[in-house]
Amino acid sequence: MNSTSNWTLTNVPDLTGKTIIVTGGNSGLGFHAVEAFASKNAQVIMASRNAQKAEQAKLQLLQLIPHAKIDVMKLDLTDLKSVKSFTVEFKQKYSQLHVLLNNAGIMMVPYSKTKDGLEMQLGTNHLGHFALTAQLMDIIKATPKSRIVNVSSMAHKAGVMDFSNLQYENGGYSPFKSYARSKLANLLFTYQLDSYLKVNNIDCIAVAAHPGVSDTHLFDHIAPKWVQSLLRPLMQLFIQPADMGALPEIRAAVDPQAQGADYYGPDGFNEMKGYPIKVQSNQLSHHKETSFELWKASEALTGVSY
Ligand SMILES: NC(=O)c1ccc[n+]([C@@H]2O[C@H](COP(=O)([O-])OP(=O)(O)OC[C@H]3O[C@@H](n4cnc5c(N)ncnc54)[C@H](OP(=O)(O)O)[C@@H]3O)[C@@H](O)[C@H]2O)c1
Fold first, then answer.
1. Is 27 in the pocket of ligand 1 (CB under 6 A)?
2. Ligand 1 in contact with 33 (CB < 6 A)?
3. In this predicted structure, what is the pLDDT of residue 3?
4. Residue with CA nearest ligand 1 atom 47
5. What's 201's domain CATH number?
6. pLDDT tens string 220-251
7. I want to staple 30 with a disulfide (CB 3.0 to 4.6 A). Which of 24, 50, 170, 205 is the partner?
8. How far apart (Å, rounded) are the C-alpha atoms in residues 138 and 92?
9. For the whole model, what pTM was predicted?
10. Number of domains in the chain
């Protein structure tokens, strides 16, 4: 730890020889995570749905870190064929995967469906990552001391799982309820995954993180730019810069002290901002039957099994 004992980028160890995937690595928290890992010599795969945006982000990072090893690869979590192609291509190029950082996400979008007919927020935030992780499990097994990190949110506390209406197929959709459900799913998945890894003696841990409230592109579609700039002075009181918001997921990915099923978030008031520490998720996120039922439902919906 540094002199103030706050966990910062100075605590990130040397990552020479490590291969790390960051989903949604071209923007927001993911961008800063790629920056942190690349600056410590990791081979980083920026897994992005938009190649043009990702190449621009890579150029920006290369200006900051000329020695950065960043490989842009196409991944669209709303398309299970794209998830499959990504994993096939990744395994052709790389023989180990030390960290899979499942960071990409969308928030509070109007009701719509993925290419595979899954509800968009659950499909992107949870089911796409569930399928991605399963299809990388063989390479994860082949990598000693590997790690899977899922990015949740304080919104998980408002999440409710209803397996008879998991994708709001019977109505009742609200952008916030669906987002909260998807972020609860991230935690239920993390804890069930960590048990799966332990039961199967796989030398890997599953860890979760949340960024508090961070200034990224996640909110762009919620209010027009001019409203956002009017609200900005007020928002600064509650919101932290994206590089600070990325610290919990970076810590979850690389802190040698992290253990399976740990959850990292900011240490400030209501976990909204601050330096990353271990935090607690709610009781429902630890409910074993619910996480098992979600696992089974996710296997059925994605057609992918562990
Ligand atoms: N910011 C916050 O306050 C906050 C709070 C709680 C949790 N989170 C979580 O933090 C994570 C990162 O979000 P952020 O705040 O950094 O937002 P962001 O700046 O909007 O970044 C989200 C990233 O996810 C990517 N993405 C979205 N849909 C995708 C898809 N179908 N396939 C592949 N990539 C996709 C985006 O790609 P494009 O660039 O192409 O859009 C972007 O790279 C999310 O899981 C979010 O739920 C954020």
1. yes
2. no
3. 46
4. 105
5. 3.40.50.720
6. 777 777 877 777 777 778 899 999 999 999 99
7. 24
8. 13
9. 0.97
10. 1
